[in-house]
Amino acid sequence: FRNTGTAELLIIDAFSTCGCTVPEFSKEPVSPGDNGKIDVVFDATNRSGLQNKAITLKTNTPLREATVWIKANVKSNN
After folding, report:
1. This prediction's pTM
2. In a 3-state reduction of DSSP, which class is residue 47?
3. What are the pLDDT digits (tens) for 7-35?
4. Which of 13, 17, 37, 62 could make an SS bond with 58 (beta carbons 3.0 to 4.6 A apart)?
5. How many Å apart are CA 10 and CA 7, to the nearest integer?
6. Given pLDDT bands bounded at 50, 70 and 90, which one contains residue 76?
7. C-alpha angle with apex 34: 23 to 26, nearest 5 degrees?
8. Around Cβ 14, how many Cβ atoms within 10 Å?
């Protein structure tokens, strides 16, 4: 992602309500105009078809929270 704001962006926390979706993020602030990264690991065990998972980000922005959606189409190996 890119910080398009005018101040440093700090991700305070990132989480999902599903244990199969685990986000990891840098605790370092992202300066205006710079890029940051959020890695998300999705465990597709016993899942198939279209999957939509929400990642909630708690930040230092005026909105305080943002939601990022991850979409995947899980295909069976059978």
Report:
1. 0.86
2. coil
3. 999 999 999 999 999 999 999 999 999 99
4. 13
5. 9
6. confident
7. 30
8. 19
Place of tokens 């710079």: 34
CA distance 1 to 5: 12
Q: For residue 13, give both structure tokens.
A: 């926390």
Cα–Cα distance measured from residue 44 to residue 18, given in angstroms and rounded to the nearest whole number: 12
- The amino acid that residue 37 corresponds to is K
Would the pLDDT of 5 be above 80? yes
Interior angle at CA 6, CA 5 and CA 9, nearest 5: 60
Q: How far apart, in whole angstroms, are the C-alpha atoms of residue 73 and residue 1?
A: 22
Q: Which two tokens stand for residue 25?
A: 């993020």
- Cα 34 from Cα 18, distance rounded (Å): 30
Whole-angstrom distance, CA of residue 47 vs CA of residue 51: 8
